[in-house]
């Protein structure tokens, strides 16, 4: 077939590889979702459609327990980390370089730079000391650990939003007799809101997904959904795992979609 | 706000510089106060404990996990060396070194494969029309934000002996015994590639999106063929993206824990699993601490390399 | 500090008849005074002196323009008056009161920002109401004032639109209404017309002048556009490198530029080196490069024998026959037709190039050709002796 014009953007084979890549990314996930509806007990042999694994997953008390714990931890971590991250973002953006700004910036981003396993081990040691000293073995360890590693994830979209925000809007407010607090309340906050929401959701998803740090920090009987699943993977698996995963995926995808829409609105 | 006080005590012109300096000091203090809660949490539950790890790596291991508060360099020695139980001579800790080697090798191969697959994919997205580009990008982002464990689980179902790949191959009569992929280095590498591929595509895309295709046109105008344009024009333009993507894949691969645990089984450990082992069955917390620091140092070196190179080209990523 | 609107508006109307004729009544009272103001950004090697010991007095009801190229410090001076920056040294008086260290929300001045800085999450009317609400005005008064302001800028119909849904020119009007609504003592305008296209800019120049006349508020206008400055201002301060070089009416600035920078920045100018040969008081004689001596007023410190630079506007030069009456003679090197006028480039005997502009109705264009030898005559008052 004769080409109508010379396509400068074309590179031989790239489209094929790209499409292969998309197939490779989605095929396993789709397989996983499909087999969650398998009527049989195998996760490889299709035996017809059924909701039975969803029913059994929802009826499974361990799953219920872990899911509730996951949501509690993620909600707490997202809420607290978003508030402190918002404050930190306000402090570290749109400013002359002040004493210690690099230090603050590096500290906030630190969880992104250290492998999770190292942070997990560090927390394991530190919390072991506290456990011995105080005897407390409750959920607080997981709550604070999750809050800490969620901070940079909450911080980044808020900071990005702030940096794109026109400083002259706040100047205009001050020029029009708004005190710093009122400027924040009536101008900065409404404009920053999508960023805060995005940061909060990101933090929530990150906390919900965490395996490594939770696995190392948790006390006995404090499984979250991911650590419960990790434990189950050592056994013979039934499509119940697929069902749990599918629900989990659905929640994540929903949140990512909302996150995307929030971020797109600004541009 | 002490508005009146400010007016009354407003210093005359001579101390304008002092007033400006005072304002700056106040501003700096306020910014520190605003950052304080975040810093407090991070120091309590992330940065501080890392310091403790350093301390622990120089202590003596306790009998049932934990440590004895006695200075020792045994942990650091046993990262690389092992003492023969019979003649007490020092030899290289082959078990550790092979795990180091596997971690580096698998991470490197994963990065290379991710680049080979990710580069055309990012290019493909970047050259889509404006309208559909966001959708393609979204398709790459979704796996990125979905649970790593679930994605590992998904790839496991594909490559298991009773999984889709083997079922299809046997069904087609190509093989009659299932291919043993699970619990091999290949499985770990495939898993790492699968879970970290989006980390390669996203920064690559970010730098490709900015390509001015008039430069590509200029390349063709000056008699370059497609391959030459790719090598001499496009590749140099997106070099920062290549470096960023490679680092973003290499670092988490090196510290991977979940993927090798699920897909590699007990024998095909990586550094992350070796570390975890010291705090579990190994009961050697100082060694675990020393290994953690080793891993952290390698990661920091990689990051510094990235910062240095990305800084040179003047393009920021992340 | 806060003026009562009801008292201020009727008083305005009285002046309106006069103002409608373009007779701006500038009172002698001082609105803003900057005394020995310096502003330094950064420190050490990166130190930038944006303002260097600047003093200026701006009168009430005046349309005052800060004119200069980018980086001359004009915007910094404006921001110091607004309160977005603090002076490194010196003081700023608003109505005789020191305000240099008051935050912007405690100064009764308002700003029209270069990019308008309209709140994107509010409607047009909400934007205009913002300042009044922050001042704690009653609901009825806010509504009334907002309506009056929207009327002033002719934006009543779009009051419920989001600011992202209106055009650039309309945003400009809203920004004006918002800044005028609290009836500031001084309105600061930071290159507000630079984002508009040429036609809209011309319209807004007239509009701005009208609003200034109608409201009687002191306007301090920052621009790098000399034409904008000349057409709108009561007085202009020409700035360069953190200094004010000259303050004066548009005519003064154009006809009698104080130094080379001002002469060069505003309009086109020919610079001609000359020598002072006689001087008694301000009266003296100047020797032109052609050797001809002309009587001239010398207001600078230049003594007998010293070299001076003359600034001569291209339209103030007459082309004549190359005879004894001519101050210079030269050869036409290029003729450029501009529609309303024609520009002649002439190489003088001394080798220097001079530009002469003539209106086309005079018909020189048809008579002269490239290569012709011509004489140039300049009235002595059109030769401005520049400060060194």
TrEMBL record, chain A:
Q: Principal localization? A: membrane
Q: Where are the transmembrane segments?
A: 12-37, 66-91, 112-132, 138-158, 186-208, 243-262
InterPro entries to which the protein is assigned, alphabetical: Bact_Polyamine_Transport (IPR051789), MetI-like (IPR000515), MetI-like_sf (IPR035906)
Q: Where found?
A: Cell inner membrane; Cell membrane
Instruction: Cite the PROSITE patterns for this sequence.
Output: ABC_TM1
Reply yes or no: does the keyword Membrane apply.
yes
Provide a GO biological process annotation. transmembrane transport
Its membrane topology is listed as:
Multi-pass membrane protein
Keyword check for Lyase: no
> Which UniProt keywords are given for this protein, alphabetically ordered?
Cell inner membrane, Cell membrane, Membrane, Transmembrane, Transmembrane helix, Transport
Q: Name one GO cellular component term.
A: plasma membrane
* The ABC transmembrane type-1 domain, residue ranges: 67-262
Q: Which domain of life is it from?
A: Bacteria
UniProt function note: Required for the activity of the bacterial periplasmic transport system of putrescine and spermidine.
**Protein family (similarity comment):** Belongs to the binding-protein-dependent transport system permease family. CysTW subfamily.
What protein is this chain from? Spermidine/putrescine transport system permease protein PotC
- Specify the species: Dongia mobilis
Automatic annotation (TrEMBL), chain B:
Q: How does it sit in the membrane?
A: Multi-pass membrane protein
Where found, per UniProt?
Cell membrane
Q: What is the lineage of its organism?
A: Bacteria, Pseudomonadati, Pseudomonadota, Alphaproteobacteria, Rhodospirillales
GO CC terms in record: plasma membrane
- CDD domains registered for this protein in UniProt: TM_PBP2
Question: Where are the bilayer-spanning segments?
Answer: 32-59, 106-126, 135-156, 187-206, 233-258, 287-307
Q: Which family does it belong to?
A: Belongs to the binding-protein-dependent transport system permease family. CysTW subfamily.
Does the entry feature the keyword Transmembrane, yes or no? yes
Q: What is this protein called?
A: Spermidine/putrescine transport system permease protein
Ranges where the ABC transmembrane type-1 domain occurs: 100-306
User: Any signal peptide, and if so, which residues?
Assistant: none
Gene3D superfamilies this protein is in? MetI-like
A single Pfam family it belongs to is BPD_transp_1
From TrEMBL, chain C:
Sorted keywords for this record are: ATP-binding, Cell membrane, Membrane, Nucleotide-binding, Translocase, Transport
Entry's CDD domains? ABC_PotA_N (cd03300)
Matching entries from InterPro entries are given as: AAA+_ATPase, ABC_SmlMolc_Importer, ABC_transporter-like_ATP-bd, ABC_transporter-like_CS, Mo/tungstate-bd_C_term_dom, P-loop_NTPase, PotA-like, PotA_ATP-bd
The record's top EC class is translocase
* Occurrences of domain ABC transporter (ranges): 32-266
Q: Does the keyword Chloroplast apply?
A: no
Question: Per its database record, what is this protein's job?
Answer: Part of the ABC transporter complex PotABCD involved in spermidine/putrescine import. Responsible for energy coupling to the transport system.
List the protein's name. Spermidine/putrescine import ATP-binding protein PotA
Gene name, Swiss-Prot/TrEMBL: potA
